[in-house]
Amino acid sequence: MSETTVQDQRTVSGVAIRLEGVTKRYPGQQKPAVDAVDLEIAAGETVMFVGPSGCGKTTLLKMLNRLIEPSGGKIFLGDEDVTGQDPDRLRRRIGYVIQAGGLFPHMTVGTNIGIVPGMLGWDKKKIAERTDELLDLVGLDPEVYRDRYPKELSGGQQQRVGVARALAADPPVLLMDEPFGAVDPITRQRLQDELLRIQEELGKTIVFVTHDFDEAVKLGDKIVVFDVGARVVQYDTPEAILAEPAEDYVADFVGAGATLKQLTLTRVADTELHTPITAQVGEDSAAVVARATEAGEQYVVVTDGRGRPVSWPSVAELSRTTSVPGTRDDRLPVVGLRSTLNDALDTMLAASQGGVVVTGRRDSVAGVLVVEQVMAAIQATRGETRG
Amino acid sequence: MTSATDPAVDPAVDAQADVEPGGRRDGFSWRGLLLQPVLVLVALGAFAVWRATADLTDAEARPLAWSALLGSIVDHLELVAVSAVVVLVIGIPLGVLLTRGPFRRATPLVLGIANTGQAAPAIGLFVLLATWLGFGFRSAVVALVLYSVLPVLRNTMVGLQGVDARLVEAGRGMGMSALAVLLRVELPLAVPVMLSGVRTALVLLVGTATLATFIDGGGLGLLITTGINLNLDALLYSGALLVALLALAVDWVGRVVETVARPKGL
């Protein structure tokens, strides 16, 4: 295993997963759906399963928590052979996230999240604390959302609760089966950013099935490209798969837009962010305007008490007020540090803005990124691929 | 870039306001529920006035005395209640069983039997069972159960089959046992459909229990048959009216239970 320095710095609370000759045969079918797969997934890594539909990637995922019983082979979590373990007990140690969250509609958000801890025998107080902690982690205010029913949430919020529920008992492994398939592109991008942020904090071992190669490039530390029968065609970092597809099959799958796909490889954090002048809600406007003018800035990022961006007014607009207004701009373009330049560009276009506010830990402002920087990055990668 | 616009409203809060208009939907259904008991009470009042003022012969007045009427109604309800309990005890577990793994194959057979039970003319069912099991309360209950088990059985199955398979998978995927998924996810979500089956069965039972009198099973049917046999219209109409009111009242109680027991969040 080639551990990069980035991974060494990360918190790791996951365990490694090892598959040895894992096979699934269905009665009455000649070819096995999954044919003797060997795979090693390092602790704390996010591994993306991609491949055409029917290639067996979902079957393989569901064999990891034994929703589908393997017909042969062995599965290890860490050094422990879990192939013969009681499936119900095994699954309480493995978080499972499905499309639209799979929330139980007759239970409140809090109850949904507390199910696994409840089965593990935690006391009520501990469950309640954990629920609030998790809602906070996925960016939902516990006071507002704890007692709501799933139908009272938007699709993106339901998906967040689904992730919180899967993390409830702090499992070392998280399985995600096309979790973001059913939400609109902007929400999907937000959810992806959030997953990256959470993963940076927690360092779980995540296995994630997707049919979207861009999503795989963005989220994955490694990508597994499957062919029929869950044959592993290539298992490598996104960069390596884009640069050197192992077979024509992979090259086809990656698609023709590979040059611009390099944009998907560049994270916002990798570019030089501009540090804006920030102002807290309620501050004296004149002082803020003076500060901005001195720094030669045209715009000011307004933040709330927890450092989260609220709006992005111009100095001219601010000078017309006496104190910094706390009204939230719903169309404020925001991306996370781990977002790709592709996302940043999408967000700018969607909001008709020339820049985005970049947020880091706990959604606090980390800087701003303007369209010129994205264009420069495109120029650079085009130059690289030509040269 | 953009200045601060309108006070920020979380889109979800907006959406919620549309979905749950302050319990307006609940209030609406309650108003609908109010009409039925009012009609029943008005009809009952009219009957009481008629009963107090009508000029009745002795043969009519005795079975129409309030104590005698109350006895008939209690007999009738007893038939309905005992049969209903047996129907629930058979119908719901059987419905659950027939939606589980290997037992699914038996579904057509069991539904076939239940269908036959309901399709057979009720009066024929009563008489046949009586010649086999003897006259009386017990045979009447067996016949009533055969006649009304279908709605409970079928709605239990339909309700369970209507639960999103992904929710079952989510439950199993997070480590709930099959039994836990059944008790905590599938049955609660199937409750509305199941309860409407129970209500249908109860209404069927109230009506059909009038036939119990033919095999000496008692109930309000006695009033009707006596009225026909002895050509006493007052008895016939009173019996028919009381059975109808009883069925409406039972139906109403069923509706109230359905409204109250419906899981929140659906």
Automatic annotation (TrEMBL), chain A:
Entry's EC annotation: 7.6.2.9
GO molecular function: ABC-type quaternary ammonium compound transporting activity; ATP binding; ATP hydrolysis activity
Pfam entry (one): ABC_tran
ABC transporter domain residues: 17-254
Record-linked PROSITE patterns: ABC_TRANSPORTER_1, ABC_TRANSPORTER_2
Keywords carried by this UniProt record: ATP-binding, Nucleotide-binding, Transport
Top-rank lineage group of the source organism: Bacteria
Top-level EC class as recorded in UniProt: translocase
UniProt keyword Nucleotide-binding present: yes
Similarity comment: Belongs to the ABC transporter superfamily.
The protein, known as: ABC-type quaternary amine transporter
From TrEMBL, chain B:
PANTHER family attached to this UniProt entry: GLYCINE BETAINE/L-PROLINE TRANSPORT SYSTEM PERMEASE PROTEIN PROW, OSMOPROTECTANT IMPORT PERMEASE PROTEIN OSMW
Record family assignment: Belongs to the binding-protein-dependent transport system permease family.
Annotated organism of origin: Klenkia marina
GO CC annotation, single: plasma membrane
Record-given protein name: Osmoprotectant transport system permease protein
Region of interest (Disordered), ranges: 1-20
GO biological process: glycine betaine transport; transmembrane transport
Keyword annotations of the record: Membrane, Transmembrane, Transmembrane helix, Transport
Annotated transmembrane regions: 33-53, 73-97, 109-129, 135-153, 201-223, 235-254
Superkingdom per UniProt: Bacteria
One Pfam match: BPD_transp_1
